[in-house]
């Protein structure tokens, strides 16, 4: 049985009258990768801060394994602004970093104890620590080690913080939203890195593919209680639904029995008699159970959208640069009615600049953008969330509209709309200043959707939102009768919603791919494999000539069967090369349907492997024939 590295026993945390969690207990076993799931405001970040000694708690006990090294990646990393990237990696660097800093300082101030410092550096194998820092930073696409923290973008700062915590080599790695502000390439790198490490982890993340591929256990914080699921995110979804179904059945049975017992309790006390005291006590326990909330499947929210005409927007050969950096180069695109486009690419390739030009917030250097007269944009951006913190939640929404038009004469009050997005009637009268970061994002989303736009532009809508809210948003967008552009690093979210993806490679290079993100990645992997095969094929003749003597066998003539095999191979190789060229040309054309493209992507590597094997046998037979 695996040893526990962390035991939480009877932990309770309240903020004023709000109970975040009460008497929860769980443990993290050695080598387990644990994901923590809960709604915004349920106390996920508070729980991580408590574990990492950054926040107090009301009751309970936290027990760490002796000499356990804990590394913490906060949701919003904070470093002194004048610190360099390299200095930041030493800032919270753990024992190794402190040892290297101590040795470096001793070179100046502690010559007498130099031998002891050298001995410590030898024992810890710390001489190459700085080169290890540079290696990890380079893998995370950070190359200027002397750049100031104040000059970094949000994504760059997050990558520095990721490098910092990974370099501490902790026994328990605690991460709060590790994928926020990372582009897809970096998320996939971090995914592979964590999959290969046999360390204990506890993480909060809304990235469902990340949870599925990295985590081996899921903890759910719900109704002030913790639930444990020994599997990844897909397993959790299945078992959670089973738990809810069982619980709802128990509540339904309790309700049926409660109605009978309530009738008995309403009789005159004399009719009950003193011998039924135990039945009274059981009644009150039954009442508690019967009055539990039954969780029902949410109805899809269908809000009436303003009419949108056939002309949406047309980008007419637009170009945009910032100094020597090219964002768009003579780019043309005509947006279709009801289209749902995903925009992907590494940070800094121009995704946000492109949508700001669509919205008219930035002008292209050349070309023009024409927007249809009926288009009404709804724009959700990372910078757009601005609230008066002294207002209540309900007032911020009522400032936009008292009612939401559902169409067909139906209306929904502002309060009902907020309830659909997980704001209870009690929470609606909270001050905005008391909301968590994720709750503010959810409120901001409500204010955008309430305006009944017919063209939604969502720039990183999934950051800081909990999984429940993401599912509500996905249902809303699937039923949305308008146009959508989504800029997101959330691969699961993109896969569920978009018809095609616009891929920004940088330097003005853009590709329009007909399919979702996962299908694009499969196509990209096939294309890269094909390019590698072509390079190997071009270099093969020279390599074969140089190694010819090694492969030569004793002089003899081909047998009759070998001669026939050689003739057959010649024909087969010719046909296979034609088929390979056809597949490669089809993939590069960009006109294939998604299902046909997927089939080619699966078949092409097998064809290349078979062609290589037949070519090698053909060469062996030709060497014999040429003797």
Structure description:
The chain is α/β, with parallel strands linked by helices and 627 residues long. The chain is built from 21 helices and 20 strands. 30% of the residues are buried.
The CATH superfamily title of the largest domain: P-loop containing nucleotide triphosphate hydrolases
- Outline: globular
Strand order of the largest sheet: 5-6-7-3-8-9
Any idea what the CATH architecture of the largest domain is? Answer: 3-Layer(aba) Sandwich
Low-pLDDT regions: 548-554
> Per DSSP, what share of the residues sits in E-state strands of 2 or more residues?
15-25%
Number of domains: 4
Class by helix and strand content?
alpha/beta
Q: Work out the helix count.
A: 21
Helix content: 40-55%
Rg measurement, Å = 31 Å
Q: How far is the N terminus from the C terminus?
A: 66 Å
CATH level 1 class label of the largest domain: Alpha Beta
Mean pLDDT: 84
Q: Could you give a quick summary of the protein structure above?
A:
The protein has 21 helices and 20 strands.
Observed structural traits:
627 residues, alpha/beta, Rossmann fold, six-stranded mixed sheet, 21 helices, 46% helix, globular
Helix-strand layout with pairing:
Elements: E1 4-15, E2 18-29, E3 33-38, H1 44-51, E4 59-64, E5 70-73, H2 85-91, H3 94-109, H4 114-124, H5 129-139, H6 154-167, E6 172-176, H7 184-195, E7 200-204, H8 208-214, E8 217-222, E9 225-229, H9 233-265, H10 269-272, H11 277-290, E10 313-322, E11 325-334, E12 340-345, H12 351-358, E13 366-371, E14 377-380, H13 393-398, E15 403-407, E16 410-413, H14 414-420, H15 437-449, E17 455-459, H16 467-478, E18 483-487, H17 491-497, E19 500-506, E20 509-513, H18 517-546, H19 548-551, H20 560-589, H21 594-625
Parallel strand pairs: 3-7, 3-8, 5-6, 6-7, 12-18, 12-19, 14-17, 17-18
Antiparallel strand pairs: 1-2, 1-4, 8-9, 10-11, 10-13, 15-16, 19-20
